[in-house]
Amino acid sequence: MRLILLGAPGSGKGTMAADLVKEYQIPHISTGDIFRLNIKNKTPLGLEADTYIQQGALVPDSVTIAMVADRLAQPDCKTGFLLDGFPRTVEQAEALKVMLSACKCKMDAVVELELSDEEIIGRLTTRRVCSSCGKTYNLDSNRPLQDGICDACGGALYQRDDDKPDTIRQRLANYNRQTMPLSDYYKNQNLLVRINNEGEVGSSLPAVLAALRSRA
Ligand code: AMP
Questions:
Q1: Is the CB of 186 under 6 A from ligand 1?
Q2: With respect to CATH, is domain 2-26+79-215 assigned 3.40.50.300?
Q3: Spatial separation of the C-alpha atoms in residues 20 and 120, rounded to whole Å
Q4: Which alpha helices (DSSP H) does the chain contain, by range?
Q5: Are 137 and 127 in contact (CB under 8 A)?
Q6: CA 167 – CA 160 distance, rounded (Å)
């Protein structure tokens, strides 16, 4: 199964991705996570990406596309993968098409999660992430058992710099301008599955799975 997960920052992609990779036993490829790991490890890629990420801007296509091509060439992606946070522009989608045609494969579906801007801002400002394993929490709807500590690994929780209100507004504006056109792009290719993700965290998984099953 080859899937793309589309949705504004804070639309619930992380949770949905975790559920889908478990369901289909495929690798989860989150460009944001790969950048954050590189920033943490102070690699040249991380140093280059950091300035853009801090401003809520997109990392240049030349850097991002090469990074994804490299990841998709790994053996664990042979039979499937879930892309989360990529593509984010039509140019990236075109580059992905070239990567896929090189291996004579194609996407099965593009799942788009919809949520109002108001709900997104609320979810992002209360989001906390484990500095050690990356697990995500929410101070309103999914609190850790002990304040500031990850239930899974005991790591310290932190607020991402780009989850502060000014940067969130910038990221949403970027999403609407640069990434929203992908919705029509994939709809025209008959790949789009659009799901309203307003309810409780995790509650739209059955609707996504049913929609994917009906396409198979
Ligand atoms: P995310 O965790 O998906 O919200 O990504 C965090 C940040 O990483 C974004 O705000 C961008 O700065 C950068 N980023 C992630 N994916 C991409 C991409 N496909 N193209 C460019 N920049 C990206």
A1: no
A2: yes
A3: 21
A4: 13-24, 31-40, 44-54, 61-72, 90-102, 117-125, 165-174, 181-187, 205-215
A5: yes
A6: 10
The pLDDT tens digits of the residues spanning 143-193 come to 999 999 999 999 999 999 889 888 898 889 989 999 999 999 999 999 999
Q: Is the CB of 127 under 6 A from ligand 1?
A: no
User: How far apart (Å, rounded) are the C-alpha atoms in residues 42 and 40?
Assistant: 5
Quote the tokens at residue 95.
């580059």
Q: Is the CB of 12 under 6 A from ligand 1?
A: no
Q: pTM of this prediction?
A: 0.88
Contact between 157 and 129 (Cβ < 8 Å)? yes
Query: How many of the other CB atoms lie within 10 Å of CB of 47?
Result: 11
Ligand 1 centroid–CA 32 distance in Å is: 5
| Cβ–Cβ under 8 Å, residues 84 and 27 | no
Provide the residue ranges of all domains of the chain, joining segments of one domain with +.
Answer: 2-26+79-215
For the chain, give the number of residues. 216
